[in-house]
Specification:
By secondary structure, this protein is an alpha/beta fold. Helix content is 40%, strand content 16%.
Length: 254
């Protein structure tokens, strides 16, 4: 069952509960040393896991320096660039091997504002999965995107809803908070998507398992440093993946 909620009061985590914010990186040296401290400032119960895909620009080395200076920062080094979905899946498995009650997805490029993290912590009190929405209730909260990119994103969400039945305002967004038991219930080794379709697939699998999904409004800023990871391959994957999800839903293979 999916619900839409007003944001509750701040402070959903109990004193003994901890959350981990997974931040995938590839050539994010301009951003990683700034974004990680800002995440940590939002709540003392949050740690950060930087998942670096062997960035040529030294992002992984900078992340190691941050980890050496603060025990709340962790780094997972991967051999090479395998895509956003594979990076998040590696981060999920890392988190599930440790005692984290909440697992976040968040971009490194400041398109996701760390200031929204307390709102996620509040909303997850009454949900199993919280999504940061750029299109909640039909309102668009995107800053500095060209109209063509905005129309592609908005249209992709309409398309995903129509094909899968997943009634979310922003199924392609990547700012999320999972309760631990959601990730434990999803067969992570069977997740097939890797680009923006990965976000749709994870929400779809959670929805089909009956978990409570909430959307909260966020302001999304286009990146100011580095290069966008959008590609034609990612768009093509999203187009055909929603049809596979529909079939999985019909056949019970989710």
């Amino acid at each position: 069952m999916m619900t839409r909620m007003k944001t509750p009061a701040r402070g959903a985590l109990a004193a003994g509960e901890r959350g981990i914010v997974i931040v995938p990186t590839y050539n994010e040296s301009e951003n990683v040393t700034r974004i990680v401290p800002l995440i940590l400032q939002q709540d003392p119960r949050l740690d950060v896991l930087v998942v670096d895909d062997n960035s040529p620009d030294g992002t992984g080395r900078l992340a190691d320096q941050l980890a050496a200076a603060d025990s709340r920062v962790h780094v997972l080094h991967r051999a090479g660039k395998e895509g956003l979905g594979r990076a998040y899946l590696a981060g999920f498995k890392w988190a599930l091997e440790r005692d984290y009650a909440y697992v976040f997805e968040m971009d490194a490029d400041f398109s996701h504002d760390p200031a929204h993290l307390p709102e996620f912590l509040a909303a997850v009190k009454d949900a199993d999965l919280v999504l940061g929405s750029r299109y909640r209730d039909g309102k668009v909260t995107v800053v500095n995107w060209p109209m063509t990119r905005l129309m592609l994103s908005y249209g992709a969400n309409i398309y995903a809803r129509a094909i899968t039945g997943l009634h979310l305002g922003d199924a392609t967004g990547g700012f999320k908070c999972f309760r631990r038991h959601v990730l434990e219930a999803i067969p992570l080794d069977k997740v097939r998507s890797n680009g923006y379709a990965f976000q749709i697939e994870m929400s779809f699998r959670a929805w089909k398992r009956g978990f409570r999904i909430a959307e909260i409004p966020i302001v999304f800023h286009d990146r100011t440093e580095g290069e966008s990871k959008m590609s034609k391959r990612i768009v093509r994957e999203a187009i055909w993946m929603v049809w596979r999800l529909r079939w999985w839903g019909i056949s019970g293979q989710y």
